[in-house]
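Supplementary Text 2. Reproducibility record for the structural model of the 84-residue chain.

All settings were left at their defaults, and a single model was retained for analysis rather than an ensemble. We include the record here because the model underlies the residue-level annotations in Supplementary Table 4.
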Amino acid sequence: MAPFTVQSHGRLMYDLESVVVHQSEAGKAEIEKGHYFTYSKRGHQWFLFNDDRVTIANIDDVLEAQAYVLFYRIRSMTQLKVEP
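Retained model, structure tokens:
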């Protein structure tokens, strides 16, 4: 991963693909307790994956979520020059 994270390769663009959200009791940030759900994008449409339910979500829901983990996809690698 070093060629993609350490060296400078010009300006790269990333697209947000998924957001993991952790909900816990008010005032408690306990990772081992609470509930996790995910927003993920397929094409240009966002979906909410919550236990056994999948529903359509909108970008406002995603952007307002209290993210625990974010997943990005690199938009273009054409500017990268990976050196041995």
